[in-house]
Amino acid sequence: MSTTKKQPSDLACLGGRPLFAEKLYVGRPNLCARDKLHKALDQIFDNRWLTNDGPFLRRFEETLQEFLGVRHVVAVCNATIGLQMVYRALGRARPARRKALMPAFTFIATAHAWEWEGGTPVFCDVDPDRHLLAPDGAESKLDDEAALIVGVHTWGQPCRIEELEALARARQIPLVFDSAHAFSNFHGSRRIGGFGAAEVFSFHATKFFNTFEGGAITTNDDGLAAELRHMRNFGFAGYDQVARLGTNGKMQEISAAMGLCLLDELDGLLETNRRNYRAYREAFAGLPGLALLELDDPESLNCQYVVGTLAPEAPAFARDLLVDVLWAENVLARKYFHPGCHRAAPYAGREPAPALPVTDDLCRRVVVFPTGTAVSPDQIRPIAETVRFVMEHADDVQRRRETRA
Ligand SMILES: Cc1ncc(COP(=O)(O)O)c(C=O)c1O
Fold first, then answer.
1. CA-wise closest residue to 20 among 378, 397, 405, 366
2. Last residue of some domain: 234, 263, 292?
3. Helices (DSSP H) in 233-317: which residue ranges?
């Protein structure tokens, strides 16, 4: 049960009762109907086909191809391996070209996958309003060593696709999208998935659509799809024929089954996320010192992230204070993508250090709030009231916490 915070000592971090008895997470796993998955598991046992291009995987890929409106879906064990495969297929074809341009304001896997493939990420800044790769900044970093441009549909909002396409075309290098956040989202009348040379989705447990672990590469390029299918299976092109270097990127049957079962529930999951997004916007309206990221067209997006940004004039300690306060209240808000890829190992300290003022600023000010099926509008209101209380009494709360420590 939640209680309104009227004075600092009501806050759980200062001895009060937590707002919620149970923890509220960003990205608590969505589950399909249990009996459906049980039935699928029975089928998998009857088939005695657990992985390796089985019937569930094939049906999952075909269903996604139709859903996303793309020629090929190559399901994989997770998006990180999917990115590595795409990067290797498209970016390492010319080994002398080691650079991939990408935003620093993204999950670390976008960068690690390229570094893992022997490349060097070149970090670019994002725009302050939508947090997406700024094409102008990327253009200024393009040189003859650039192998790839990587756009990221951060928070599920389509990045500036046409401008990045024009840039990649002019330089004759491939454009890839990390679409980990963007499953089922639209760009205009088309779903994300068919843009650039390839896109990579994550179906990790914390994404609103999950396959336990998993992901999918999408492309309209027949040759690339064939290459990726071999690559996913150790490079095998037949039972005994290894055609190329490969890895083990396969998705298991049970994961594909989970994906098929959850696809049946997609409309409900989307509606829940959109309902929560609306409830957050309403509850946070006019809140001092913190603005919620406004999505361009929420009805065309999965709304799986509710992103707040503290005002630029907020004191330097305010974001971390807010997150600490919320955690004590069992509201497990997150500081994505602090500190920015460029300040994380192994990239931090590399010369020349990129100047990324917007990324640095966002990394200090962004807070992501719990949403999804485990959060209801009734819980969002007290979260907003607590945020309001902290923003209005930040200095006092900070002082009292320091005194208690
Ligand atoms: C932007 C982005 N890229 C890549 C990944 C990696 O996805 P996976 O966990 O499926 O490897 C994530 C995961 O959260 C992500 O947010």
1. 378
2. 263
3. 253-263, 266-284
- 225, 242, 263 - which closes a domain: 263
Cα separation, 380 vs 74, whole angstroms: 38
Check: CB of residue 248 under 8 Å from CB of residue 260.
Answer: no
Tens digits of residue pLDDT in 63-115? 999 999 999 999 999 999 999 999 999 998 888 999 999 999 999 999 999 99
- The pLDDT tens digits for 268-306 are 999 999 999 999 999 999 999 999 999 999 999 999 999
What band does 2 get if pLDDT is binned at 50, 70 and 90? low
Report whether residue 2 contacts ligand 1, using a CB cutoff of 6 Å: no
- Largest interatomic CA distance in the chain: 71
The reply to whether 145 falls in a domain is yes
- The ligand 1 atom nearest the CA atom of 202: 10
Q: How far is the CA of 242 from the centre of ligand 1 (A)?
A: 29
Q: What is the pLDDT of residue 1?
A: 54
Task: Indicate if ligand 1 lies below 6 Å from the C-beta of 293.
Answer: no
Which atom of ligand 1 is nearest the CA belonging to 203? 10
Examine residue 342 and state whether it is found in any structural domain, yes or no: no
Count of domains observed in the chain: 2
Q: What's the 1 CA to ligand 1 centre distance in angstroms?
A: 33
- Asked if residue 4 lies in contact with residue 329, where contact means CB atoms within 8 angstroms, the answer is no
